[in-house]
Amino acid sequence: MKNSWEKLAKLDRRVIYFLLLLVVVVPIIFPFRLKPKAMPPVEKLFNHIDTIPDDKCLVISVDYTPDTEPELHPMAIALLRHAFAQRKKVGVLCISLLGLGLAQDALATVSEEFNSRAQTNADSIISGRDFVFWGWQTPPLVPILGMGENIAKVFPLDYYGNRTDTLPIMQKIKNYNDVAILVSIAGSAVPFWYITYAQTSFGVKIGAGSTAVQAADFYPYLNSGQVTGMMSGMKGGAEYEQLVEERLGVYGRRRATDAMSSQTAAHIWIMITIIIGNIGYFVMRRRKK
Amino acid sequence: MKIRLPLILVLVTGIVGALPFIIPHGIAQSFDNEFRNSILRIIAAFSLVLGVGSIVRHHTYKIKWKRENWQYSWILLISLVITSIIGLFGGIEGTGALPTSVRGFSFDIQTIFVYMAIPLGATMFAMLSFFMASAAYRAFRARNFEATLLLIAAFIMMLGSVPLSSYIFPRLPGFAEWILTVPNTAAKRGMGFGIALGSLATSLKIILGIERGWLGGTK
Amino acid sequence: MNVATNPWIWVSAILTLGIFSFLYKENPFYRVCEHLFVGISNGYSITFVWHRVLMPALIDPVAQGQRLWLIPIAIVGALYFTRFIPKVSWLVRIPIAIVMGYGAGASIPRAIDASIVQQVRATIITRSTFESVYNGIWAVVILVGVIATISYFFFSRERKGIFKPLSYTGIIFIMLGFGASFGYTVMARISLLIGRLTFLLRDWLGLIR
Predict the structure, then answer these.
(1) Domain range for B31
(2) Does the pLDDT of residue A245 top 60, yes or no?
(3) A35-258, what's its fold?
């Protein structure tokens, strides 16, 4: 018995890696359907976007980079589905340069989903009319503060190289006064920058899509009302996907929801390994005494 | 001159940055907007030189002096040059002077980013899950009351954040959310005050020239 | 099984496996991928800085003979190059001073408002806090927790009297907060792994739909 606990404690790291791999892979191939239930911060964000008036727009700030793509990309896609389904005007920008390619991918994926079902031009999602992809500017203070005065001045060209002041959608989006909520999806402190600079100076409402690692840090701001609503990690993305499906009947690939079976299995597995590790620790400690 | 000029500039631009918030007058606002949109933007854009230049210099030296693993520096430099050429001359949407598509096979900057940079970056961070699993197994011990508390909170979060928990323990997700909204909020807010005051003090020290680490030396 | 025919998907899959190969041990395949990532990311950055910042904000207007006063600004920006010329490398401090000074100045009044004033306001208990009994109770718990946490980090006084239990209460709140962060960190890391494995199994090997 003593030997087996010691052996277990000295288990080769590659065995742990392999077991984790197995625990994640099996549910990907044989998923069990789990319905995520939206938590209040996600629901608040959904409801706020749902009630955006016609004269205001949703701004999505794609502030994540490839390293957090699996966790945050589903959020951007779910938000775009929500906005496009209700024909809300959308502006997209990036504070992180490496977010550009991801934002473009999300816009292309979701507009393609809608356009493949569209029967007329009016049904389609068109760049410059239904959404504008402003792109990226540096340093972060330039877009964050500058958008309070004149967005077209901050982004003279959109991502595709068109002059932003000539785009039809831009006739109605001049500055933060025309923004109902700005949702910053980030694996970094960018949502805090929006709170510190854009909200204090212009009063714009801020939503956040955050990696689970830093989600807990946003709760004081959620509590104070400085963050209107929030999605935390892949779970948050799955909850938003679920709301978009249930309440709007908009379907598409559910990247975050589909991952929930693997997520569940992995969480249970990690908990089991921690418990085994602790039992071994206490058994060996008692023996030493 | 070498020290005083940058210190004067940091003081002046610091005042320029703070003033429009304190004096929300039209003239101050317009000046601030113009300063940001023209001067700050252009100067900050050039800062890329520092990053790219340092990387190029480091790897050129590595190749020149044949330091350990110098061969890989070629990979970095060649990929940097090729990607830059494709991006600069092929244009962002592949509409530049350089053709970025051959017989339907596209290799524009966005394609390269989506199919090369995204998988590389995402996989590097995905590896952390293995390290975390191994570390949790070996080191996460309930040695005392405080550590046990941390462990319990972590377990509640892990279970409460997956959909399965609402089928088995319907109240668990709500309890996990309570931990986040009450004790976690209190702890993070308390720490947040310290962090905010610390960063304010640092900003003030930079503007007043007390903090000079950014000068990179006193010569 | 429906293996991808798009060569780019194969490139992505090979690069993904290259990075994962580090889990067995460090190897040349991993190192190639690592260096490739840095090279591509920097090339990508150069592209966008040129096409979307320098071209519209500097080169186009100056080439059209407008806003010629931007030329000296560009010269100040170009001082970043002096970092690599030892004799005049101190000049790099000028553009750094401008960008950093503005950032520090802009942050001071706004951070006081966002991170201190608004946060203090949310912590203070008023009569309206008790409009809902539960909210009122939790608001009191938050207030106690905030004070206790701050007292734990107050090192200028010995922990005696009321200060001792207060700072211990602080530890309890901090542990609960860190526990929540750890639980969420597990979720975050696993999510990233799921993302990559889904790509390999779905987009590359076509094992799932």
Answers:
(1) 4-46
(2) yes
(3) Rossmann fold (3.40.50)
Cβ-based contacts of C122 with chain A (< 8 Å): 220, 223-225
User: How many helices and strands in chain B, by DSSP H and E?
Assistant: 12, 2
Residues of C in contact with B103 (CB under 8 A): none
Name the residue facing B114 among A105, A216, A281 (closest C-beta).
A105
Q: Are B76 and C32 in contact (CB under 8 A)?
A: no
Could you give the angle at which helices A69-85 and A100-117 cross, rounded to 10 degrees? 40
**ipTM, interface predicted TM-score of the complex:** 0.90
How far, CA to CA in Å, does A12 sit from each of A8, A185, A258, B135?
9, 38, 31, 12
B87–chain C Cβ distance below 8 A for any pair: yes
- Which phi and psi (to 5°) does residue A185 adopt? -105, 115
CB of A262 within 8 Å of any CB in chain C?
Answer: yes
Range of the domain at C45: 1-68
Question: Confidence class of residue A246 from pLDDT cuts 50, 70 and 90?
Answer: very high
Q: Are C205 and C129 found together in one domain?
A: yes
Residues in chain A within 8 Å Cβ distance of C201: 25, 28-29
φ and ψ at A92, to 5 degrees?
Answer: -125, 135
Sheet with A131-136, side-by-side order of all strands: A131-136, A89-94, A57-63, A179-186, A206-210, A227-232
Q: What is chain A's percent helix, strand, coil content, to nearest 5?
A: 60, 15, 25
